[in-house]
User: What shape does this take?
Amino acid sequence: MFVYTAMPLTLMAGGRRIAMTTDGFGRFQFDCLEPGKYTLRVEYAGHRALTTDVDARESTYMGCSFTEK
Assistant: This one.
């Protein structure tokens, strides 16, 4: 059985960093972002950090899954 756990996220652009935590199902939302390119970093204890590039527009649904190989 899989147990959902909140995970810390960091959204980075230039020198700006915005930190937040997912809910228990891994969902998250960053409000009031300027459109542009960002890097999203996901961390979880005991696992290596994973990153993905995001090109945010007016409203961007990522719909992605992070998996460890």
Observations:
- The chain is about 0% helix and 40% strand.
- The mean pLDDT is 78.
